[in-house]
Amino acid sequence: MFNLIIFGPPGAGKGTQAQKLAQQFNLYHFSSGEILRQEIKNNKLDKKINSYLNAGKLVPDKLIITLMREKIENQLGKVNFIFDGYPRTLKQAKMLDKIFNEKKIKPALVISLELEEEIALQRILARSKDSNRSDDVLKVIKKRLKIYKKTTAPLLKYYAQKNRLIKINGRPDINQVNEEILTKIKKRR
Ligand code: AMP
Question: Is 4-188 assigned to CATH 3.30.540.10?
């Protein structure tokens, strides 16, 4: 059993690396942002939830935990996951650990893509030019980076204490970052 969490500020390349790793290790790419956007599009969630995404704010823990728990519990143990965008709060991290524990599955390793805020900002701005994501505008990007720093980044300490953290330099190009991840994962397995 081998599950991963990909972690890092918006703009660090989580989605891109998660896609690659999903292929390389045959993992199910679990993107909470993508799931939320789909659920809203398919009217499975109140449209009001969209206002959180548009404002760059985190969706309330209670809602997202209920939604994700259902999706994860059905699959965990049958497929191996790479979590992308989840968890983003300590409550979410604890919920994920609890599910793994209940199923007696080894906790997921955390790949942390490290990137300076200024570079992250430049990258998202560049991406926003050819993306149709309504949350990619300067004010919202800054908000997302702020929330990352305040609410999500502290999770790194939680995972480091549990000796599950793998730090990766997120600056180099996509393939180089991927190489570093592969090398470091191999050492841990
Ligand atoms: P992402 O595609 O991962 O950048 O997520 C897009 C947006 O979805 C975020 O800015 C949040 O509004 C919401 N979202 C995604 N994942 C989570 C999460 N784990 N907890 C709370 N909100 C989330």
Answer: no
